Amino acid sequence: MENLDWLISQIDELQTQETTFANKALLEAAKDVAKEQAKRLEQAEMELDGRIWSPTNW
Fold this sequence. Notes:
Largest sheet: none
Shape: rod-shaped
Number of helices: 2
Low-confidence stretches: none
Strand content: under 5%
């Protein structure tokens, strides 16, 4: 999660320096993609954890 926070802060910093709307929109989309990837990674980890601890697999 700290990597995501770092990435978001870097993108925010780049957005403040950017002057064109297209580049700001691209950076915003990159931020959305990073958040979605982090969410999916967390969901996959939870699924794996659930499958490992499932009593039917013991």
